[in-house]
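hiii so um. not sure if this is the right channel but i have a protein structure encoded as tokens and i wanna go backwards to a sequence. like what aa goes where. can anyone help
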């Protein structure tokens, strides 16, 4: 089975990216052989429609399943229309996520797990001024989808204390790596001045 895992880097030891449409990489893994191909997500910087574009990348590569932390409604619609199954709540490394799926610890998702535009990120001009306000601050507000969370949810709660420790340790490792990348980037920018 060809599985696409959202990832923060392009290898089996990369952390699972909790976002689908704005994931940094898609790692396509043959679940039988663990052979993989990493593809940078070209939709990550799209001003809109990143989930749809990302889903089309996955469909075009022929994946049978997507594993991610969360998935939005537009991406889910594209994937389900193309008969690509989706499992969310993944954490740890790409390899661990594939193993979780193979061992039945990740179940197929029946719908989106976040509302539209959740992964747009802030702090770098993520808001694109699309408001259609009519002077009351109420223009085109997005209403939460029925029985769907409005913000990304933490990965599915582990079943045992050991699994919870493993999950939290893995998340801490991912955060430490992200922090190091941010520090490196700060130093690079400082040197340019």
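sure thing!! here u go:
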């Amino acid at each position: 089975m060809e599985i696409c895992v959202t990832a923060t880097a392009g290898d089996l030891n990369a952390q699972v990216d909790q976002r689908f449409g704005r994931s940094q990489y898609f790692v396509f893994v043959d679940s039988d052989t663990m052979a993989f191909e990493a593809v940078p997500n070209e939709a990550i910087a799209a001003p809109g429609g990143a989930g749809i574009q990302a889903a089309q990348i996955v469909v075009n590569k022929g994946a049978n399943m997507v594993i991610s932390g969360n998935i939005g409604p537009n991406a889910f619609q594209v994937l389900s229309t193309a008969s690509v199954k989706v499992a969310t709540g993944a954490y740890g490394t790409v390899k661990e996520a594939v193993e979780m799926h193979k061992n039945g610890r990740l179940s197929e998702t029946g719908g989106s797990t976040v509302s539209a535009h959740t992964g747009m990120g802030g702090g770098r001009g993520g808001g694109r001024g699309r408001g259609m306000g009519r002077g009351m601050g109420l223009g085109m507000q997005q209403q939460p989808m029925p029985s769907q969370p409005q913000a990304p949810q933490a990965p599915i709660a582990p079943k045992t204390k050991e699994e919870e420790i493993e999950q939290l340790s893995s998340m801490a490792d991912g955060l430490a790596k992200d922090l190091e990348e941010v520090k490196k980037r700060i130093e690079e920018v400082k040197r340019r001045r």
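oh and The radius of gyration is 17 Å.
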